[in-house]
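User: Can you write out an input/output pair for a complex, sequences first and structure second?

Assistant: Here is one pair. Inputs:
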Amino acid sequence: MQTNWIVLTIAFSYLALLFVIAAWGDRRAEQGRSLVNSPTIYALSIAVYCTAWTFYGSVGRAATTGLSFLLIYLGPTLAMLSGWLVLRKMIRIARAQRITSIADFISARYGKSGGLGMLVALIAVIAIMPYIALQLKAITVSYGVLTEYPNLTPPDLSLQDFWNDKAFWVALVLAVFIILFGTRHLDASERHEGMVTAIAFESLVKLFAFIAVGLFVCFALYPGPSALMADAASMLPNLEQHFGLDQIPGGPLGWFGTLILATLAFITLPRQFQVLVVENVNEQHLRRACWLFPLYLLLINLFVIPIALAGMMGGMSEPDSFVLTLPLSAGLDALPLLVFIGGLSAATSMMIVETIALSTMVSNQLVMPLLLRWRSLHLDPSRDLSGWLLGIRRIAIIAILILGYLYHALIGEAYSLVTIGLVSFAAASQFAPALLLGLYWRGASRNGAAAGLLAGITVWAWTLLIPGFALSGWIPTDFIEQGPYGLTLLKPYALFGLEGWDIYTHSLFWSMLVNIGLLVSVSLFSRQTHMEQTQAALFTNALRPEAEMAAIWQGQANRQELFQLVQRYLGKAATVRLLGVEPLDRHDDSPATPAMLAAAEQGLTGALGSATARILINSVVRGEALDMDSILSILDNTSQTLEYNRRLEQKSNELSRISAELRGANDRLRELDRLKDEFLAMVSHELRTPLTSIRAFAEILNDAEAMEPEQRQHFLGIIVRESERLSRLIEEILDMARLESGRMTLSPERCDLSQLTRQAIEAVEQLFQQRGIRLESRLPDTPCPVIADPDRLQQVLINLLDNASKFAGTDTPRVFVDLTALKQRYEVHVEDNGPGIAVAEREKVFEKFHQIEAGHSDKARPQGTGLGLPISRGIINQQGGRLWVADPKTLTGACIVLALPSAPDETQEVSS
Amino acid sequence: MPEVLVVDDEPNILLSLEFLMQQAGYRVVTAADAEQASRLIEANRPDLVLLDISLPGMSGFDLLEQLRQSDATRDLPVIMLTAHGREVEKEKGLALGANDYITKPFSTRDLVSRVGTLLADHSSEG
């Protein structure tokens, strides 16, 4: 027997040691030399699974129901062996989505549903409370055994004198410890390295203590394991039967039920999720944990049967205390203390992790969402609320432990350790369908998960929790036997007539049936929101390589969602161009590549600015605080406006472009109209002039009764000449019109320019002689081949000679024609010795109807029409040549130059 | 015998006008441009001017304007002759103070009668 103060001193010293270890772990983490970055620490921290229930209860269960205790450890072993598939996926998702608890995980999976998170958190608190009470009970009992042995008086549990209850103080001290190490600071990942270090240490302590007892029993109490077994075989006649499968409650079906329960609970218990998923620093650690943790379970269970047998052979009562009473009965002092410390470590590690996990859920999933919705608090979600968060967590930690204590003090007595544990397992396993199906089935919806959870937990409460309360004497028990209001179909231990199963398997069967059934059926018939679809895709595709790459963009996005998002703002064509993919099938869930995300962000930045683009991409990639639907509904309005604006702008741009074009066209038309008017006026003026003379003289002749024949002849001559002029004018106007409309048909052929010039000179020779103008020329003897319409070319040459004759000097009029061969062309210079053309006038002479004032008015010379030069230039231009006014070389007057490109070499061929 | 000044740069038209005026019994002087006409008006003080609008250099309008600005020639009857058939030209001529406006080609009888009427009006007024 140990004195109280020694036990208390050692117990609190142990807790103090935990402080030191946790502080050390935290310090190392801050220094960047993390202790927990080790697969061994990870595996040991998972051993938080082994609570006081394992430490004391396994032996108790082995003593009462044989091998069934092993199922509680076979389940986690199975779960761990499949860990590389399932757990790795969860870890990766948790990292990408910054998951803080199982409630957060399930909420995140189902479109970040706040309601679902709340439900999970609430169920977890209710389900785990007895489990915490169980740990307190174990501490109290073991303390009682240690200090009172051999007088085993069950501790008097009531709220009176609670300050004398060690369990109360243990709870309070633990609360302080957890507050210190669980809520020192807020970490985005909710990782607590110091705590994990301490937990790993505690796992070693409890293993060491238990093995120590086992070795003591096997080798000190008995000469060896085989001797122990031999003794047991002789002393316990029903041994074979005791450890047979029949002994397991519910028989083979009970095996199966308990195994499944343990497997599921291993993952879904909040503390297990915390150490397995949230506290994991490196998914590669899973590799070692996959075998190290099962090994740990093997070791801690190795001596369960020997200890149980020894206890049974010793005829001891209270099998849950065999671990402690066996060394005590041997009169040892140190070993019972070690055992007590081992049990304490098992209990405290569980309480620490569980409380942290629960307080995180309570603050994140229950309290904060309510506070943020409670408008009177005026909490601005954009403000830093970390102070609030930490305060809430601290209060939650104290509240959870006090509630655990109350549960322990008020009803803890009614249940055995194992019973309490399994009831909690059964509640926690209700998370499994939503969690595991959600990892692999995209179609699992929020409504389905909520319906399944609610129904499952209701069945759990009816088939396990409420009968438990009844058996504790809180409420009458007759409903267990007869069913509520005599409805035998609803008997909690024999629902719908299902009898003969153990209560856990029975409860598991019915709760899972309704849970999975509703999850699947409701999911099949409910529509998922945008956010749900995104999250479902992210969760189910978490292990795909593309998804890993997308993590560069701090998360992953669904390709189709991204496409739709970008399309909302940039339109379909631009989106296809930007992302390099065609519009996708609605059900396509392939993830977007990082390149697509980057391109999409860039594209949206261009349209909406970087901040908005970031928010939008964020909304598809992770969809953080705001849910997708609200973002989309807010932004759809914006985007519609944007789209309208974009279209309006497009239209207005188009309109202004068209109007500019119209203005231009109109200006051109006006100009053309003005030119046409001017041309018509000119033409009309030019036509009227000869017509006036013709009509006047015709009328004069007509009216004249008597006229001298010479005068008559003179007038008739005028009429003839003016008629010719009129005909020529009309011809020229038609030429001009043809040239301008591009309808002048030329028949170009290879011809000799010098020959054509000679012919032109011959044609005007007589006219020049009449006018007394000296015409000289210098023409080469060799042919000058050009490609031209010879008739038109000759017309031009004659026109130039005619012009020159009009402007040649008055005294000794001269015209000089010079044909020269240049490198690529031939030039014909027609010069006169007239007044010449001023430089400013040189281009104007090619305007229509531009009349050059002849320096003299010689009535013998016919007036020009003002169309000769424009037509000539038109004809020459059309044949690839040029016509311009130059400085005279030989004479002193005007000089018009006609240039034509020389025809490509060919066999000498001269056209006439 | 009234004297008529005929101004036109087109020699054949000038010849026909000269012949028509002589035949109608007027003394005729001719000018091929506005400057020459201006000089003749100052020197000969004709009773009527047949004035073509498109003339080389100074136009018929310019000459008319000049005539109307001078006291001596303000009331000198002027008949504009033009190959431009446009209304604006006609209005412009009348606004500048032309007494009549005849479009080319003209009817010889009409021209002679208008000249006669204008000369008669003017001599009775003066």
